[in-house]
């Protein structure tokens, strides 16, 4: 059976968790407490970089969430979550990579707000500007179909869809992006998003861990 080493607070882990659920695969969920469990020898034997998620499939250890998603799509192609058309496939890949390389790191200064912690006003403003640039691009990449490049859910959704819906609660407006706003509503209504949504208790439990990281 597939085994996912996961943390409920992590969007990187959550995108894999959602994909496993959307593909209706059987798997074991192993919660990794990010207060130090990721540095223990047992976990480092799975991923020497001490990052989550890790997916284990019959003794094969997979790290890096986008690689894990590609693996799941190739090994379990039903339901298909990658388009065949070249342009549509490029849209999905752009959304994935822009989320990972631009949106997530660019909006990191906003996440203390989610935990009720003070942030740097200048960095927060820069993060909001970065988010606005990405969201406008995503708005332009959506057409009259409900998902990026497809009538059906693609891998772009669990990647971008675990970040974008959070931004409204962090002071980033989607008022200029009506298609993207409707896309967020579609995703957050899905059972897989609701099942994997971090609870307020999980968020508060992560607060001292985040504070310790900020203090380093």
TrEMBL record:
Positions of the GST N-terminal domain: 1-80
GO biological process: glutathione metabolic process
GO molecular function terms listed in the Swiss-Prot or TrEMBL record: glutathione transferase activity
Domain named GST C-terminal: residues: 85-209
SUPFAM superfamilies registered for this protein in UniProt: GST C-terminal domain-like, Thioredoxin-like
Matches recorded under InterPro entries: Glutathione-S-Trfase_C-like (IPR010987), Glutathione-S-Trfase_C_sf (IPR036282), Glutathione_S-Trfase (IPR040079), Glutathione_S-Trfase_N (IPR004045), GST_C (IPR004046), Thioredoxin-like_sf (IPR036249)
Domain of life where this protein originates: Bacteria
Keywords of the record: Transferase
Keyword Transferase: yes
Subunit-level organization: Homodimer.
Name of the featured protein: Glutathione S-transferase family protein
Organism, scientific name: Hassallia byssoidea VB512170
């Amino acid at each position: 059976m597939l085994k996912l080493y996961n943390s409920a607070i992590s969007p990187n882990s959550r995108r894999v968790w959602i994909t496993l659920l959307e593909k209706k695969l059987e798997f074991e969920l192993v919660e990794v407490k990010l207060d130090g469990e990721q540095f223990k020898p047992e976990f480092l034997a799975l991923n020497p970089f001490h990052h989550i998620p890790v997916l284990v499939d019959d003794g094969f250890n997979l790290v890096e969430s986008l690689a894990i998603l590609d693996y799941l799509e190739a090994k379990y192609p039903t339901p298909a979550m990658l388009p065949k058309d070249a342009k549509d496939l490029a849209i999905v890949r752009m959304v994935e990579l822009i989320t990972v390389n631009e949106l997530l790191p660019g909006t990191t200064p906003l996440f203390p707000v989610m935990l009720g912690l003070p942030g740097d006003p200048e960095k927060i403003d820069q993060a909001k500007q970065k988010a606005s640039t990405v969201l406008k691009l995503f708005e332009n990449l959506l057409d009259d179909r409900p998902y990026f490049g497809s009538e059906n859910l693609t891998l772009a959704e669990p990647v971008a869809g675990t970040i974008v819906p959070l931004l409204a609660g962090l002071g980033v407006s989607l008022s200029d992006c009506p298609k993207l706003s409707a896309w967020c509503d579609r995703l957050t209504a899905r059972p897989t998003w609701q099942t994997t949504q971090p609870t307020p208790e999980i968020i508060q439990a992560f607060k001292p861990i985040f504070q310790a990281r900020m203090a380093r």
